[in-house]
Design goal:
Elements lengths: L2 H13 L5 H9 L16 H7 L3 H9 L6 H6 L8 H5 L5 H12 L6 H8 L9 H8 L2 H14 L14 H7 L3 H10 L14 H6 L14 H9 L11 H14 L16 H25 L22 H16 L7 H8 L2 H10 L14 H7 L3 H8 L4 H4 L10 H6 L12 H18 L15 H8 L1 H33 L6 E6 L5 E6 L5 H28 L11 H31 L5 H44 L14
Antiparallel strand pairs: 1-2
C-alpha cells in the first residue's frame, strides 16, 4: 500500500455515515503513530476530519487508541491553517464531541493547568482560539460550554481578539450569530466599544447587514409574508423564563448536553419552507435585540462634521468659489478615510429598526452631519430608502433638515435627481420605473422650500436639469416599451373586435325567413333562437366585447400618437395604460362568454359534467390571461388610483392627507 492509499482509505471511512468505526480501528490498531499523519492536502489528521463533522463516536474510538503520553500532542497538532482539533469541533453544534475532548484534557498527566490553558487558548494563523471560531460558526450552547471550560483554567478576555484586531463580538456579528453576540455583550459590555483595524465597531457591521433585519430584507411574496407574520416570536430569551430553566441549562453545560425538550420548531419538521422562514424571523428578532444593546453605548452621532455650504441657495456661482471647491475636494480625497457612523450606514442600507432605535434613544442625533456635509435626510434620499424617508418625514425636525446643503452644493432635491445609487427601483416595467422616479422627485420637491428648486450645485446644475440628464436613458427605454406594448395590445384588441363583430351577424342557430303578407309579400329574417334566455345574454356579451375592444384600440392609439415626454409618464400614461388593459381584459372575457353562450344555445347539454367541462374550457383562456397579466395590470391600476387620489388630495378644500399612499412609490 503506497502513501496515497494510506491517506485515502481512512479518509473515506471517516466520511462514511454508517459509523463503521471498527474499520478505522483496524486500520490504526497496528500503527497508532499513523493517527497523527495528515490525510488531506490541508494537512488534516483523522482527528481534524472527525472533529469537523462532529463524529462523536469516531472521536471516542480514535482517542482510546492514543497512548496517554501522546494525548497532549494529539490535541496540539495543527493543519495548514493552524487549526487544532478543538478549532474544528468548535465550528459544529455537537457539544458532546467537545465534551469528549474536554474530558481528554482533564486526564492529562499531572493535571497541568498551564498545559490545559495552552491547549484551550491555542491560536491558528489568524490568531483565533477555538472559542473565537465557535463565536462565528457554532451555536450559543457550544460557545457557553467552551467559555465555561476556559473560565476554570484561564482568562476569558485573552480570547476576545485575533491578530488583525477583530474582536469576538465583531466575528459573531459577521457570522450572524446574534444570540451569541448578545451573550458576549451581556457578559462583557466593553466589547461594544471595540474597533477593528478599519475603525468599525460591532454596530457599524450590524448596520451594514440589510438581510439581518425585516425592514431591509427583500419581500418574499404574499404567501411567505403571511406565514412570516403568523409564526410566533421566539420567547426563549425573555425575562421570566430564565429562572425556570437556569438550573437545567447549567447542568446541560456541565455535561456537554443540549436541551432535549421539545420546542416549537420541532412541530415544523418536514416543512422546510416554514422552518426556513421561522429561522429568518428569529434572526431578525435577535438582530433587533442586539442593536438595542449596541445603541446604548454608541456615541458616534455626537461627532458631527461642519458643512462647507450654508443653507442658503445660490443662483449663480463665481469662479473663485469653483476654485475653492476644487481645492476642498482635493483635500478631502487626501484626508484619511473614516467610516461613516452607524446611523448613516443604517440609513444607507434601509434598516429602519436601527434608525428608529438611535433616534428614539438620542433624538438630537437627527441633526448628525457626515464627512461629506450630508445629513441623514440627504443619505436616505440619495440611496432611495423610502421607508427611512417616511420615518424622518414624520418628525418635526424634518422641516430643518430639508434646508441642508452638502459639500458638493447639493440639496436633497439634487440627491433625489441623482441616479448614482439607483438600482432599478421596485417596479416591473420601464414606464413604471420612470413614474416611480418622477413621483419620488415630486414628493421630495414638495418637502423643501419652493425657492430651493432654483439652487445651483457646484457643477452649476439645478435639480430639474440633473434629473432630466440622469434619466434620459430611462425615458428612451420607457418610450420604446410604451410604444411596443401599445402596438401589441392594439393588434389583440382589433382581432377581438373582428371576432365579436362577425359573431353579431352570425346568430347561433341561424335565421328563419318569414313572409310579410301585409308588406307586399316581402320576406323578413328572424333569429330562430330569439326566444331563448341565453340569446339575450349572447347579445349583451357580444355588444360589450365589441365596445370594450374598440375602446381599448382608441386608448392605445392615443398612447402611440402622444409625445411621451417626462410629464406624460407621471400620471397620464399610467392612467391610460390601466384603462386600456382594463377594456382589453373585459373584451377578452366578453368574447369567451359569447363563445360559451353560443355552445350552450347550439348543443343541449343534458349531463351536468359535460356542461361543467364546457364552462371550464371557456374560462381557461380567461384565467390564464388574468394569471399572467394581473401583476402588471395591478401595478398600473394602483398607479392610476394613486394619481386620482393625489389629484383629489391637492385640489379639494380641507385636509385630505389620509388619501396619500404610503409605500415604495
Amino acid at each position: 500500500m503506497n502513501r496515497f492509499d494510506e491517506m485515502s482509505e481512512p479518509y473515506k471511512k471517516v466520511l462514511a455515515k454508517d459509523d463503521d468505526v471498527h474499520c478505522l480501528k483496524a486500520i490504526y490498531s497496528k500503527n497508532t503513530d499513523a493517527l497523527l499523519n495528515p490525510i488531506t492536502a490541508l494537512k488534516d489528521t483523522i482527528f481534524h476530519i472527525a472533529a469537523h463533522d462532529g463524529r462523536e463516536e469516531v472521536l471516542r474510538v480514535l482517542l482510546e487508541m492514543v497512548p496517554p503520553s501522546k494525548s497532549a500532542e494529539v490535541l496540539k497538532v495543527k493543519n495548514i491553517y493552524g487549526n487544532t482539533i478543538l478549532h474544528e469541533v468548535a465550528t459544529t453544534t455537537n457539544v458532546k464531541a467537545a465534551r469528549l475532548l474536554m474530558e481528554e484534557l482533564l486526564v492529562l498527566p499531572g493535571n497541568d493547568n498551564r498545559q490545559r490553558e495552552e491547549i484551550l487558548g491555542a491560536q491558528n494563523k489568524l490568531g483565533e482560539t477555538p472559542l473565537f471560531r465557535a463565536a462565528q460558526y457554532s451555536c450559543k450552547t457550544m460557545v457557553e460550554y467552551l467559555a465555561t471550560a476556559i473560565g476554570r483554567t484561564g482568562n476569558l478576555e485573552s480570547h476576545y481578539r485575533r491578530n488583525d484586531g477583530t474582536s469576538i463580538l465583531h466575528i459573531a456579528v459577521i457570522g450572524q450569530q446574534f444570540d451569541t453576540a448578545i451573550w458576549f455583550l451581556r457578559k462583557s459590555p466593553e466589547l461594544a466599544t471595540y474597533k477593528d483595524k478599519n475603525g468599525n465597531t460591532s454596530l457599524h457591521l450590524l448596520a451594514s447587514m440589510a438581510s439581518a433585519f425585516k425592514s431591509s430584507s427583500p419581500t418574499k411574496g404574499i404567501f411567505k409574508e403571511f406565514i412570516y407574520y403568523c409564526l410566533p416570536s421566539d420567547s426563549r430569551n425573555k425575562e421570566g423564563t430564565n429562572e425556570l430553566t437556569k438550573n437545567r441549562q447549567d447542568r446541560d453545560l456541565e455535561q456537554g448536553e443540549q436541551n432535549r425538550g421539545l420546542n416549537q420548531q420541532d412541530y415544523c419538521k418536514g416543512w422546510k419552507m416554514i422552518v426556513q422562514i421561522w429561522k429568518q424571523k428569529k434572526m431578525h428578532e435577535s438582530a433587533v435585540k442586539l442593536a438595542k444593546l449596541l445603541v446604548e453605548t454608541d456615541a458616534s452621532w455626537f461627532e458631527t462634521h461642519e458643512p462647507e455650504e450654508d443653507d442658503t441657495i445660490l443662483m449663480e456661482r463665481q469662479e473663485e468659489e469653483e476654485e475653492t471647491s476644487k481645492s476642498n475636494a482635493t483635500a478631502n480625497t487626501e484626508r484619511s478615510p473614516e467610516p461613516d457612523t452607524p446611523l448613516l450606514i443604517a440609513t444607507k442600507t434601509g434598516i429602519v429598526e436601527i434608525v428608529k432605535e438611535i433616534l428614539t434613544r438620542y433624538p438630537q442625533a437627527v441633526y448628525h452631519i457626515g464627512q461629506k456635509g450630508q445629513n441623514i435626510l440627504h443619505v436616505a434620499i440619495m440611496h432611495r430608502q423610502y421607508k427611512v424617508f417616511h420615518v424622518l418625514n414624520d418628525k418635526e425636525e424634518a422641516k430643518r433638515l430639508v434646508r441642508g446643503i452638502d459639500n458638493d452644493g447639493c440639496t436633497i432635491l439634487h440627491h433625489a435627481a441623482n441616479t448614482k445609487y439607483y438600482h432599478g427601483g421596485t417596479k416591473p416595467t420601464p414606464a413604471l420605473k420612470l413614474q416611480q422616479e418622477l413621483t419620488w422627485f415630486e414628493d421630495v420637491k414638495n418637502q423643501m422650500p419652493s425657492h430651493f428648486i432654483m439652487h445651483l450645485n457646484k457643477k452649476e446644475t439645478t435639480a430639474d436639469d440633473l434629473f432630466k440628464d440622469n434619466h434620459r436613458d430611462l425615458l428612451k427605454t420607457a418610450q420604446e416599451w410604451a410604444k411596443n406594448t401599445s402596438q401589441s395590445c392594439s393588434t389583440v384588441a382589433i382581432l377581438v373586435a373582428t371576432v365579436v363583430f362577425t359573431a353579431a351577424y352570425t346568430a347561433p342557430g341561424g335565421f328563419l325567413q318569414i313572409m310579410m303578407i301585409l308588406n307586399h309579400g316581402q320576406y323578413m329574417q328572424t333569429v330562430i333562437l330569439l326566444e331563448e334566455p341565453l340569446y339575450s345574454f349572447f347579445t349583451v356579451m357580444d355588444v360589450a366585447g365589441l365596445a370594450s375592444s374598440l375602446t381599448s384600440v382608441v386608448i392605445f392609439l392615443s398612447i402611440l400618437t402622444s409625445s411621451l415626454e417626462f410629464e406624460d409618464f407621471h400620471h397620464r400614461l399610467p392612467r391610460n395604460l390601466s384603462l386600456g388593459f382594463t377594456f382589453l381584459f373585459f373584451s377578452v372575457t366578453s368574447t369567451m362568454m359569447t363563445f360559451t353562450a353560443t355552445i350552450l344555445l347550439l348543443v343541449h347539454l343534458e349531463k351536468k359534467w359535460t356542461a361543467t367541462l364546457t364552462y371550464a374550457a371557456a374560462f381557461l383562456p380567461i384565467c390564464l390571461f388574468a394569471l399572467f397579466q394581473f401583476p402588471l395590470y395591478y401595478q398600473y391600476f394602483v398607479a392610476a388610483v394613486k394619481s386620482i387620489l393625489d389629484f383629489l388630495r391637492r385640489n379639494l378644500p380641507g385636509n385630505w392627507d389620509f388619501l396619500q399612499f404610503i409605500d415604495d412609490y
